Protein 1
Amino acid sequence: MAKKKDNSDAVFCPVGRFFADLEDVFGKKSKVFNHLKKSRVEFLKAIRTLVDEKIESLDKKGPAKKGGKRTRIKVE
């Protein structure tokens, strides 16, 4: 027999945990859960857009500059 995993010490994303708790409370077939399921998809799409915009911003800046001004500090 396979043992059931104990996730009591696992670290969860707070947003994922929120949706999992709501699923436990309302069940998968409730209207509330259906709305929240759709909002979860929209939330993930928003994160994807944020990441894509950051990548585009970094691409426009070009590679990081090398050889900036340095000062040697003597340590005793």
Protein 2
Amino acid sequence: MHEVSFHKRALCSLKRIPTARQRQILVAVKELSETEDPTTHRNVWAMMGEWRDHWRMRVGDYRVIFQLRPLESEGEAKRFRIYITHIGTRGDIY
């Protein structure tokens, strides 16, 4: 399982989202952390341009923007820290 951490900005954004959507986003992030390779998740895409070291995950009308930071491997399984930097609607983030 991968570690998940939130930037302060992402936590503030999450608190302003309606409670039902907050739960949906947190469930999606948990599901992402439990996948073997987060980049192969069905709702995850690599970003381009100035965001090229970030990934985005679509959760309904919201986008979760994150970076993958490698952690020390345990055996052959590669582990990442999923560092969530932004959460919001498409128009608000990029």
